[in-house]
């Protein structure tokens, strides 16, 4: 018997790798945090024994165009890394905070996720709102 099960609810695959998408969307028609947790519960795991794992790393992508920046917008096929932590296609939270200086924050109600846009840079990330929703 397990005391608890830790479900890693981050770095989930994108429904389309050619489009801007989140690594931990709460809701999605594809794989999502909600569907992952519900799969465990349907298999018999009690919710009280479930620990949801989240990440302070946001999905870092480059948009094809500054004018198309919503989730699902086309992205360039390149691997980006932040200046400090060098995570492939990821920005650690301190790097996301740096990007805030020149970026605009948006909230996607359908997925309950936030994303930051600065020029053609796009980051889907966790903040207090998305964590609280989860």
TrEMBL record:
UniProt cross-references to SUPFAM superfamilies, sorted A to Z: (Trans)glycosidases, Chitinase insertion domain
GH18 domain mapped to chain residues: 1-134
Gene3D superfamilies the UniProt entry points to: 3.10.50.10
GO CC entries: extracellular region
One Pfam family it belongs to: Glyco_hydro_18
Single annotated GO MF: chitinase activity
Gene Ontology terms: biological process: carbohydrate metabolic process; chitin catabolic process
Protein's name in the database: GH18 domain-containing protein
